[in-house]
Design brief:
Structural class: alpha+beta
Distance between the termini: 65 Å
Radius of gyration: 23 Å
Oligomer: single chain
Order of helices and strands: HEEHHEE
Shape: elongated
Number of helices: 3
Strand order of the largest sheet: 1-2-4-3
Number of domains: 1
Number of strands: 4
């Protein structure tokens, strides 16, 4: 019985040692009704302003950009605000 248990542990240890290590995956666009972040790399490939406007318009709000970290691994942050006083129409959402 001990030999079977030892063989099983050695096999499991070998499988774990041979498995490649991987980092956790993080999405390049994340947000909710209060705002969100866009990965800087995605912001260089697409129109980050339009992504943020569409996201906030889905909640009936307008976008306000907060900051940009122009480096590898950086983010573009934005906040979703209520429509300013005096505006009579809801924000437009682009549909493709």
């Amino acid at each position: 019985m001990r030999r079977i248990l030892a063989a099983g542990l050695i096999t499991m240890g070998g499988l774990l040692a041979a498995a490649p290590a991987q980092a956790d995956w993080v999405s390049s666009f994340k947000g909710n009704d209060t705002g969100g972040i866009i990965a800087y790399a995605l912001g260089q490939q697409t129109d980050a302003r339009q992504l943020a406007v569409d996201h906030c318009a889905s909640y009936g709000k307008v976008v306000k950009f907060l900051g940009v970290q122009p480096q590898y691994g950086g983010y573009i942050s934005f906040a979703c605000r209520w429509v300013p006083y005096g505006a009579t129409e809801m924000p437009l959402r682009a549909r493709y």
